[in-house]
Structure formats: structure tokens, C-alpha cells
Amino acid sequence: MAARSNRFLRRALAVGCLLAVAALPTAAPAARPTALRAAPADAPQVTVLRMLQMNLCNSGRAGCYTGRALARATEVITAETPDLVTLNEICANDLAVLRRVFQTVHPGRTVVAAFQAAGDRPSGDDTRCRNGQRFGIGLLAHARAAAGPGTVYAGTHPTQDLADPEERAWLCVDADGALLACTTHLSATGYRVALTQCHHLLDVILPGISRDAGSLPTVLAGDLNLRAGHDPDVRTCTPTGHQRIDDGRLQHITATPDITICCRTVVPMREATDHPGLLATLTVGRSRRPA
């Protein structure tokens, strides 16, 4: 238990780790129907959400960098109006830009934005983009305006590829006590390492956080650098009963049994990055707990 706690208790709670949205724009688009459905007090709570995963390859250092990924991500968020956005291979300021876009498509909601940098083993600091900003993963979510600022959990994987100076990270957000939304970017240089990271994240870290938060339904989206039907197979680290979809390659969305995933869409990124967007609809159903 102590080893598990050391990993996922590296959490930055709401103070200083969430970017709460500032003033709303004057000319905001018309509000879309809320995802929350009213239900009788004794009925199960059901929430329908759209989730978008994108790997922007925006460090400026990788061969897949084009300089156009942020603009394309803005277009996709504006067009698709997702309720959750998970982001891999971004610079810290990219999240601030996309948070403002996300707010415009969710007027009247409280936006939660979280970022976790990848570690840099040689320096003991964070990995940096070419522009000097921290490099890592991010997540955008929204909550009811009256909801609190949410809670962020973040850390680095205990197993890393020692041949790669970048230490891969994971990140989760509990926006309003209804869902634990998570992202990660697993090792690209050692596929067996990626599989070990996947197992530990899905079997140890996320269940532990969920229990601490009140057994929340949990969804993970990210570039896992693993494929279905290949060796190693991503399905071997998907827990029994979990649903999983993918983009046909390396990006996946996996969810606990109290979440239904449907309506998978692969979103073209028009060669702005080397990964498509992965969009899906989540139906989150939880029985109301006794008082």
C-alpha cells in the first residue's frame, strides 16, 4: 500500500493546480443543451458527455511538429464542443490557449484546466519544449457553475525507459464529484515499458484514486503507444469489464464498467500532427448512494 500511495499521492490539489476560467466573452455562442439529465431522487444518475483525445506533437523538437496543431485543435474543439478534452505532447501555454476556446463553447460553466509536465531525468527538472515552456499532458473539463474548483491528481509512472530522458506522466481531474477523467502519454521507446506503465496505471493508481474520491466512475484517454492485436497487446492491460475504443492505432479511451462508450469518431487533424483526434460519447451511470 505504501508504494501505491507514493505514486498517486503526488497530487496537486485544487490550490494552484487548476486554472479557473476568468470573465466570459461578451458575445458567447448560444448555450448547448446541458449533459446532465434531471431524474427522480431514487433513480440512477445518468450523465452523457463527449470526450476528445488529441496528441498535438507540439514540443517543437519532434519530427512530427508542424506548428499548425494548436490552430487545428482550436477548430476541432469549436466544431465538436466536447465536454472533456485530453491532450498529449503539449507545451504549458497551449493549455491556456485551448482553455479559452473551451470556455467559449461552454458558456455559463466553470472550466477546469490541468497540466502535468513530463520529467527530464538528466536535469531532474521538467522536460521543456523548444520554446522553453514545460512539456507534458493536459486536460480540460467543465462543471456546474456552482460546483467547486475540482481536484487534480498527477504524477510520473514508477517504471520508465532508462534509455529515454523523458519521464512519462499521468494526470486526473475530478471536476465536480461525478467522474474521474484521466490522461497519460506512455513510453514510445520501450513498448514493454509502456505495457508495464499501462498495467500499473489501470490496476493500481486509478482504482486507488477512485476509492479515495468515493468510488468515482473513471475514464482514461491518451496515447498509450500500444495497439490492439500487436505484441505487446493493449488489451492485456485493460481490466476485466472495462470498455475500450481506439483510433485504429495508438490512442485509446478506456472506462470502468459504470461508463458506456459509444459513437467513436476519428477526427482528421489535416496533417497538423501525426495523430488523428479520437472522439467518443460517454454515458456515465451511477446509482444514488443511501444517505
Automatic annotation (TrEMBL):
InterPro entries hit by this protein: Endo/exonu/phosph_ase_sf (IPR036691), Endo/exonuclease/phosphatase (IPR005135)
Entry keywords, A to Z: Endonuclease, Hydrolase, Nuclease, Signal
GO MF assignments: endonuclease activity
Domain Endonuclease/exonuclease/phosphatase: 69-275
Signal peptide, first to last residue: 1-30
Domain of life according to the entry: Bacteria
Name of the molecule in the record: Endonuclease/exonuclease/phosphatase family protein
Annotated organism of origin: Micromonospora parva
